[in-house]
Amino acid sequence: MHAMQYELTLPADYDMEIIRARVARVGHLLDDWEGLGFKTYLMRERGVNGSPVNQYAPFYLWNTVAGMNAFLWGGAFQVLSDDFGRPSVRQWTGLSYEEGRAAGAPPRWAVRRLQPVPEGAELTDVTADAVGGTELLAGQDGAVFAAAAVDTARWELVHFSLWTHESPKADGEVFEVLHVSAPGRERLKRGRQW
Q1: Are 5 and 60 within 8 A, CB to CB?
Q2: CATH code of residue 90
Q3: Is residue 167 domain-resident?
Q4: For the whole prediction, is pTM greater than 0.90?
Q5: Are 40 and 177 in contact (CB under 8 A)?
Q6: Is residue 47 part of a domain?
C-alpha cells in the first residue's frame, strides 16, 4: 500500500461550491482506475469543523506504484495542474490498513493526523503503535477504514480514517468527503504491511 495526497489551499473568499461541482463532474473518472485502492475527494471549508482554510485535498491509497505513476505521469494529474497549478504531492509508505465496522457504507468525513517520528525513538515501537492505532480506529462505531503510513524523508506518520458520521472518533484535521473512488478496495492488504 502506498498513500498519497496533495493540497490546494484556496483564497479565504473562494466559492467552495466550485470544488463540489468539479468533483460531481469528474469524480467518477477514477472509479475504475487500475492499481487504485481508494481515492477520497476531500475538502475543508474555512470556519467549518475548525478549519482555518478553504482547501481541496484528495487522499489516495494505492495498491500498486504502477497505478499511481499512471495517474501522475499519464495525463490525469496534468488536468488538475493545468487548472490550479502543480501542487506538491506527498507520499507515504503504508504501515497498516484495516476495514472499519462501517466498511462499505458511504463516508461523510475523513480525519488526517500528521505526527512526527521522534528523534531517537525505536522504530519498531513507533510502527507497532501506528498499527495498533489503526486497529483501534477501525473498531470504532462509524469507521469505514483506517490506515497509517510513514514518510521516511520527513520521518512523519500519517493516520487517515473515513467516517460515516459527523463526529469522527479520531484526532486530527477533519475533511468533508465529496466522493470516493474505490476500484481496488478489496485488494488492499489488511493489517500490517510488512
Answers
A1: yes
A2: 3.30.70.100
A3: yes
A4: yes
A5: yes
A6: yes
Does residue 169 form part of some domain? yes
Is 176 domain-assigned?
A: yes
20: burial class by Cβ within 10 Å (0-12, 13-18, 19+)? middle
Do 193 and 95 form a contact (C-beta atoms < 8 A)?
A: yes
Q: What amino acid is encoded at 77 in this protein? A: F
Residue 124 CB neighbours (<10 A): 8
* Residues 108-117: tens digit of each pLDDT: 999 999 999 9
pLDDT digits (tens, 9 = 90+) for 144-161: 999 999 999 999 999 999
- Please tell me the total count of domains within the chain: 1
- Three-state SS string across the chain, please? CEEEEECEEECCCCCCHHHHHHHHHHHHHHCCCCCEEEEEEEEECCCCCCCCCEEECCEEEECCHHHHHHHHHCCHHHHHHHHHCCCCEEEEEEEEEEECCCCCCCCCEEEEEEEECCCCCCHHHHHHHHHHHHHHHHCCCCEEEEEEEEECCCCEEEEEEEECCCCCCCCCEEEEEEEEECCCHHHCCCEECC
Q: What are phi and psi of 78, to 5 degrees?
A: -60, -35
Within 8 A by CB and 6+ apart from 120, the residues are none
Give the domain range for residue 17.
2-186
